[in-house]
Design goal:
The complex is a heterodimer. By secondary structure, chain A is an alpha/beta fold. Chain A has helices at 2-9, 51-59, 92-96, 105-115, 131-143, 161-178, 189-195, 224-236, and strands at 11-22, 25-36, 40-45, 66-72, 77-80, 149-153, 181-185, 198-203, 206-212. In chain B, 72% of the residues lie in helices and 0% in strands. The chains are: A alpha/beta, B mainly alpha. At the A-B interface, β5 of A face α8 and α9 of B. The complex binds adenosine-5'-triphosphate and magnesium ion. The site of adenosine-5'-triphosphate (ATP) has 11 residues of chain A, from α2. Magnesium ion binds next to α2 of chain A.
């Protein structure tokens, strides 16, 4: 019981004075941020505000980027990209199992595919999947590793509106079942409000707004109480009445 | 007469009256392969050749009729000279190709997977490529003697260069997004090479392989024509001295058949290995 309780109180991700710059241009300017274990957080910001830069820093993918600061993140991190990034020369199941071995791997992979509704497509080639299916396979690939932290960079950006809503429901269900900490980068204010319990706005290299969304799930886009959050987020993003 | 009357009585449905049909888009890929079409062109040429010979349009001294060539071929085969020459040539091409293939793959892997390897190997191969390989023949004869070794060495060089170049460029052109994926999934270096780098480089390797196969035959023809003591080229060289055009043609046909067979074999393997690809050729 004790280690579990400790896990809940210790933040999964901790950033202290995180700075990143490209060719002398500062993109992240001393960010301090704690993400509690098991929290579903969304990160909003203008295009070019540094959302991907932040996410890649947390994922440990920014090998050649200049910067400073302290950063702690869990051992098991999964990333979902905007493109599904399935290897075209491997069947769907083998893609899901990429980097996983052990006797149980095969069974886990099949389970993960079933969880995202791709049961029976194990032996399909990635280019036989629709965009939404491919993205679900990518979700399965990230879940099968039982991540403590799930990073997603506009994972639904390339999907149509209808598929996107389905994916929202699926992602939230998966989160409720597995409870990883989630950091979801998005440019879609509604997506952030419907999915996340906490929304951050990245502005001028800093966290400009840190908003906790205290509404029960599943949430509806039409929930009038969410409108208030939307107004505040849009204001933080610099979208005023006459822009809308 | 009455038949004409009935046809005019039943009004044909004109296209404009038909309900509007959904028109399929004009297909831009060439479409499904016709079976065995690759043989259509050669068959046509053969037919023209036969027809021209039969009509007496061709000088039999310059271009003998197909059946004369066939007769000569059968004769050379049954008296044992042709099988012997073919075997010699196949051995040369085969050993040269095997060595070139191994060297090409090994060097490409070494140069593609490590920066040190690249620094040491890539420049040297590019230099080697700039020298026409057939220009090395005199030097190789002096070094290795006029026996089999130098022939195999030249063929190996002709083969390894395209295999190296294509495999290396495929290895170094691996999609950066997949590298990132491998890092995220925590792949070991070995697993990264086995599951991402190698499969990703296979299409490029096969381009090199096909060029290499063609190159091995090309090298063989040249070597056997200028420095032959046995083999198909030797047979043709002798025939030239005695003005036996039919024998020369038999040699060319055999070269052609082997070239065709080896290329088809590579294609077949390629289609199997790269079955995940759905390209214009599928
Ligand atoms: N590898 C790089 N080299 C140089 N500049 C870069 C590099 N990566 C990002 N940048 C710059 O850093 C800034 C932030 O980029 P980033 O990709 O993090 O933005 P973003 O918030 O994810 O934008 P978007 O919503 O469009 O994806 C941009 O101005 C971008 O041009
Ligand atoms: Mg981005």
């Amino acid at each position: 019981m004790a280690p579990h309780a400790e896990q809940l109180t210790r933040p999964a991700v901790q950033l202290r004075g995180l700075t990143r710059s490209f060719e002398g241009r500062t993109v992240l300017d001393g960010i301090d941020l704690d993400l509690p274990a098991g929290q579903f957080t969304a990160l909003l910001g203008h295009s070019g505000s540094g959302k991907s830069t932040l996410l890649r820093a947390v994922a440990g993918l920014d090998h050649e980027v200049a910067g400073s600061g302290r950063l702690t993140a869990p051992e098991r991190v999964s990333v979902v990209f905007q493109d599904s990034r399935l290897l075209p020369w491997q069947r769907v199941l083998d893609n899901v199992l990429l980097g996983l071995d052990g006797k149980e791997a095969d069974r886990k992979g099949r389970e993960a595919l079933a969880e995202v509704g791709l049961k029976g497509r194990e032996r399909a080639w990635p280019n036989e999947l629709s965009g939404g299916e491919a993205q679900r396979a990518a979700l399965a690939r990230s879940l099968v590793r039982e991540p403590e932290l799930l990073l997603a960079d506009e994972p639904f950006g390339a999907l149509d509106a209808l598929t996107r809503i389905r994916m929202h429901v699926l992602l939230r269900q998966l989160w409720e079942r597995h409870r990883p900490s989630v950091l979801l980068v998005t440019h879609d204010v509604d997506e952030a409000i419907v999915l996340a319990d906490r929304v951050l706005v990245l502005d001028q290299g800093r966290i400009g707004l840190d908003l906790t969304i205290d509404r029960p799930h599943p949430r509806s886009y039409r929930d009038p109480l969410l409108g208030e959050y939307r107004e505040r987020l849009l204001a933080a993003l610099g979208v005023t009445e006459d822009h809308k | 007469m009455s038949a004409t009357v009935t046809t005019t009585a039943t009004a044909p449905v004109t296209p404009t009256e038909a309900s509007p049909q959904v028109r399929r888009r004009r297909r831009l890929s060439p479409g499904r392969r016709l079976p065995a079409t690759r043989l259509l062109g050669p068959a046509l040429i053969l037919a023209l050749w036969a027809a021209a010979s039969a009509a007496g349009q061709l000088d039999p001294g310059a271009i003998p009729a197909p059946w004369t060539v066939l007769e000569t071929g059968v004769h050379l085969w049954t008296d044992g000279t042709l099988p012997n020459d073919i075997l010699t040539s196949l051995q040369r091409a085969g050993s040269g190709f095997a060595i070139g293939l191994t060297a090409g793959i090994a060097l490409a892997l070494a140069a593609g997977l490590s920066r040190t390897g690249e620094a040491l190997i890539d420049g040297s191969v590019q230099l080697n490529r700039a020298i026409p390989t057939l220009g090395l023949i005199p030097l190789f004869i002096l070094w290795l003697g006029i026996g089999e070794t130098f022939k195999v060495a030249i063929i190996a060089i002709v083969v390894y260069i395209p295999i190296y170049l294509n495999t290396h460029s495929a290895l170094s052109g691996i999609d950066h997004r997949f590298v990132e994926l491998a890092e995220v999934q925590g792949l070991s270096r070995y697993a990264f090479i086995r599951r991402i780098v190698i499969p990703g480089a296979l299409p490029g390797f096969f381009v090199g392989l096909r060029l290499g196969v063609t190159g091995s035959w090309l090298g063989l023809v040249v070597l056997e024509q200028i420095n032959a003591t046995s083999g198909l080229g030797y047979m043709m060289f002798q025939a030239q001295n005695y003005g036996q055009t039919d024998v020369i043609l038999v040699g060319l046909v055999v070269y052609g058949i082997f070239g065709l067979i080896s290329d088809s074999a590579v294609r077949l393997i390629e289609r199997r290995v790269l079955s995940w690809r759905r390209t214009l050729s599928s």
